[in-house]
Amino acid sequence: MNIEGLDYNTQRERLLLPEYGREIQSMVDHAVTLESREERQRCAETIVTIMERMFPHSGEAGDHRQKLWDHLALMSNFQLDIDWPCDVSQAAKITTRPEPMEYPMKDIPVRHYGYMIFELFDKLKTMEPGPERDELARATANHMKRNLFQWSHGSSDDQKVIADMARFTDGVIQLDPKTFVFEKINEREFTEKRKKKK
Protein backbone atom coordinates (compact mmCIF):
# COMPACT_ATOMS: atom_id res chain seq x y z
CA MET A 1 0.00 0.00 0.00
CA ASN A 2 1.55 3.27 -1.11
CA ILE A 3 -0.10 6.37 0.35
CA GLU A 4 1.35 9.72 -0.62
CA GLY A 5 2.85 11.56 2.33
CA LEU A 6 3.26 8.46 4.52
CA ASP A 7 6.79 7.26 5.12
CA TYR A 8 7.20 3.90 6.83
CA ASN A 9 10.34 2.77 8.63
CA THR A 10 10.27 -0.44 6.60
CA GLN A 11 10.79 1.65 3.46
CA ARG A 12 13.67 3.64 4.92
CA GLU A 13 17.35 2.77 5.16
CA ARG A 14 18.19 0.37 8.00
CA LEU A 15 19.69 2.03 11.08
CA LEU A 16 23.12 0.86 12.21
CA LEU A 17 22.40 1.68 15.87
CA PRO A 18 18.59 1.67 16.20
CA GLU A 19 18.67 2.40 19.94
CA TYR A 20 19.33 6.07 19.14
CA GLY A 21 16.47 6.35 16.69
CA ARG A 22 16.08 7.91 13.30
CA GLU A 23 16.21 11.51 14.56
CA ILE A 24 19.75 11.13 15.93
CA GLN A 25 20.79 9.43 12.68
CA SER A 26 19.35 12.41 10.77
CA MET A 27 21.36 14.80 12.95
CA VAL A 28 24.54 12.81 12.27
CA ASP A 29 23.82 12.80 8.52
CA HIS A 30 23.30 16.58 8.68
CA ALA A 31 26.56 17.08 10.64
CA VAL A 32 28.52 15.26 7.93
CA THR A 33 27.22 17.69 5.27
CA LEU A 34 28.20 20.88 7.16
CA GLU A 35 31.01 22.74 5.42
CA SER A 36 32.61 24.54 8.38
CA ARG A 37 34.81 22.39 10.62
CA GLU A 38 33.87 24.47 13.67
CA GLU A 39 30.18 23.98 12.91
CA ARG A 40 30.68 20.23 12.47
CA GLN A 41 32.56 20.10 15.79
CA ARG A 42 29.82 21.99 17.62
CA CYS A 43 27.14 19.84 16.03
CA ALA A 44 28.96 16.58 16.94
CA GLU A 45 29.36 17.66 20.57
CA THR A 46 25.65 18.55 20.73
CA ILE A 47 24.70 15.17 19.28
CA VAL A 48 26.85 13.35 21.85
CA THR A 49 25.23 15.39 24.65
CA ILE A 50 21.76 14.39 23.39
CA MET A 51 22.85 10.74 23.13
CA GLU A 52 24.10 10.93 26.71
CA ARG A 53 20.76 12.30 27.92
CA MET A 54 18.94 9.44 26.21
CA PHE A 55 20.71 6.91 28.45
CA PRO A 56 21.58 8.75 31.70
CA HIS A 57 21.99 5.54 33.74
CA SER A 58 24.91 4.49 31.51
CA GLY A 59 26.95 7.49 32.68
CA GLU A 60 28.21 5.52 35.67
CA ALA A 61 30.41 3.36 33.44
CA GLY A 62 33.98 4.66 33.14
CA ASP A 63 34.17 4.35 29.37
CA HIS A 64 30.75 5.90 28.72
CA ARG A 65 31.98 9.00 26.82
CA GLN A 66 34.34 6.89 24.72
CA LYS A 67 31.42 4.62 23.80
CA LEU A 68 29.26 7.58 22.73
CA TRP A 69 31.99 8.97 20.48
CA ASP A 70 32.54 5.50 19.03
CA HIS A 71 28.82 5.29 18.27
CA LEU A 72 28.91 8.70 16.61
CA ALA A 73 31.82 7.59 14.42
CA LEU A 74 29.91 4.45 13.43
CA MET A 75 26.70 6.34 12.68
CA SER A 76 28.62 8.76 10.48
CA ASN A 77 30.36 5.84 8.76
CA PHE A 78 33.64 7.50 9.82
CA GLN A 79 32.88 10.38 7.42
CA LEU A 80 32.61 13.07 10.11
CA ASP A 81 35.71 15.28 9.83
CA ILE A 82 36.15 16.72 13.33
CA ASP A 83 38.69 16.83 16.15
CA TRP A 84 37.69 13.66 17.98
CA PRO A 85 38.19 14.04 21.76
CA CYS A 86 39.18 10.37 21.98
CA ASP A 87 40.49 7.63 19.72
CA VAL A 88 37.63 6.15 17.63
CA SER A 89 39.78 3.94 15.43
CA GLN A 90 38.61 0.81 17.26
CA ALA A 91 34.88 1.69 17.00
CA ALA A 92 34.29 -0.73 14.14
CA LYS A 93 34.89 -3.62 16.55
CA ILE A 94 31.53 -2.84 18.18
CA THR A 95 29.58 -3.99 15.14
CA THR A 96 31.59 -7.12 14.42
CA ARG A 97 29.80 -10.28 15.49
CA PRO A 98 31.67 -12.76 17.63
CA GLU A 99 32.49 -16.15 16.19
CA PRO A 100 29.84 -18.73 17.09
CA MET A 101 30.83 -20.92 19.98
CA GLU A 102 31.09 -24.61 19.37
CA TYR A 103 28.57 -26.50 21.46
CA PRO A 104 30.18 -29.47 23.20
CA MET A 105 28.18 -32.51 22.09
CA LYS A 106 28.78 -35.24 24.63
CA ASP A 107 27.39 -38.70 24.04
CA ILE A 108 25.24 -39.68 27.04
CA PRO A 109 22.58 -42.41 27.23
CA VAL A 110 19.76 -40.18 28.52
CA ARG A 111 19.87 -36.44 28.00
CA HIS A 112 17.37 -35.39 30.68
CA TYR A 113 19.89 -36.05 33.47
CA GLY A 114 22.63 -34.03 31.80
CA TYR A 115 26.32 -34.68 31.25
CA MET A 116 27.41 -33.62 34.74
CA ILE A 117 25.27 -36.33 36.37
CA PHE A 118 27.12 -38.91 34.28
CA GLU A 119 30.41 -37.49 35.56
CA LEU A 120 29.06 -38.02 39.07
CA PHE A 121 28.17 -41.62 38.20
CA ASP A 122 31.78 -42.19 37.13
CA LYS A 123 32.99 -40.62 40.39
CA LEU A 124 30.62 -42.76 42.47
CA LYS A 125 31.89 -45.93 40.75
CA THR A 126 35.46 -45.27 41.92
CA MET A 127 34.80 -43.98 45.45
CA GLU A 128 35.42 -46.07 48.55
CA PRO A 129 32.25 -46.98 50.51
CA GLY A 130 31.61 -44.58 53.37
CA PRO A 131 29.71 -41.46 54.44
CA GLU A 132 31.24 -39.29 51.70
CA ARG A 133 30.07 -41.64 48.93
CA ASP A 134 26.66 -42.00 50.61
CA GLU A 135 26.25 -38.22 50.73
CA LEU A 136 27.27 -37.83 47.07
CA ALA A 137 24.85 -40.62 46.08
CA ARG A 138 22.04 -38.90 48.02
CA ALA A 139 22.73 -35.51 46.38
CA THR A 140 23.00 -37.11 42.92
CA ALA A 141 19.73 -39.04 43.33
CA ASN A 142 17.89 -35.90 44.43
CA HIS A 143 19.27 -33.95 41.51
CA MET A 144 18.26 -36.76 39.13
CA LYS A 145 14.73 -36.61 40.52
CA ARG A 146 14.56 -32.83 40.01
CA ASN A 147 15.81 -33.19 36.43
CA LEU A 148 13.32 -35.97 35.72
CA PHE A 149 10.52 -33.89 37.25
CA GLN A 150 11.45 -30.90 35.12
CA TRP A 151 11.81 -32.79 31.84
CA SER A 152 8.72 -34.96 32.26
CA HIS A 153 6.53 -31.90 32.98
CA GLY A 154 5.72 -32.56 36.60
CA SER A 155 5.96 -36.31 37.02
CA SER A 156 8.87 -38.22 38.44
CA ASP A 157 9.15 -41.79 39.63
CA ASP A 158 11.33 -42.64 42.62
CA GLN A 159 11.72 -46.21 41.38
CA LYS A 160 13.01 -44.98 38.00
CA VAL A 161 15.62 -42.78 39.68
CA ILE A 162 16.76 -45.65 41.92
CA ALA A 163 16.92 -48.05 38.95
CA ASP A 164 18.81 -45.52 36.79
CA MET A 165 21.27 -44.87 39.61
CA ALA A 166 22.05 -48.61 39.86
CA ARG A 167 22.17 -48.99 36.07
CA PHE A 168 24.51 -46.09 35.32
CA THR A 169 26.86 -46.83 38.25
CA ASP A 170 27.15 -50.45 37.07
CA GLY A 171 25.41 -51.65 40.22
CA VAL A 172 27.86 -49.97 42.61
CA ILE A 173 25.18 -47.71 44.11
CA GLN A 174 22.09 -49.60 45.21
CA LEU A 175 19.60 -47.29 46.95
CA ASP A 176 17.03 -49.06 49.11
CA PRO A 177 13.55 -47.77 48.15
CA LYS A 178 12.26 -48.64 51.65
CA THR A 179 14.81 -46.55 53.54
CA PHE A 180 16.00 -43.90 51.07
CA VAL A 181 14.02 -40.66 51.39
CA PHE A 182 14.06 -38.16 48.51
CA GLU A 183 13.92 -34.44 49.18
CA LYS A 184 10.51 -32.90 48.56
CA ILE A 185 10.30 -31.08 45.23
CA ASN A 186 8.85 -27.59 45.28
CA GLU A 187 6.40 -27.90 42.37
CA ARG A 188 5.56 -24.19 42.48
CA GLU A 189 9.18 -23.28 41.68
CA PHE A 190 9.09 -25.33 38.46
CA THR A 191 5.64 -24.09 37.34
CA GLU A 192 6.72 -20.46 37.90
CA LYS A 193 9.86 -21.03 35.80
CA ARG A 194 7.74 -22.48 32.99
CA LYS A 195 5.34 -19.50 33.13
CA LYS A 196 8.26 -17.05 32.92
CA LYS A 197 9.65 -18.86 29.86
CA LYS A 198 6.31 -18.51 28.07
Explain the overall architecture.
The structure is a single chain. By secondary structure, the protein is mainly alpha-helical. The chain has helices at residues 21-33, 37-54, 64-75, 115-126, 131-151, 158-168, 187-197. α2 (37-54) packs across α3. The two termini are 34 Å apart. The mean pLDDT is 85.
Mean pLDDT across every amino acid position: 85
The gross shape turns out to be: elongated
The helix content is 40-55%
The run of helices and strands is HHHHHHH
Beta-strand residue fraction: under 5%
Radius of gyration equals: 30 Å
Strand elements, count: 0
Q: Structural class, judged by helices and strands?
A: mainly alpha
Contiguous low-pLDDT stretches (5 residues minimum) are: none
- How many DSSP helices? 7
Euclidean distance between termini CA atoms: 34 Å
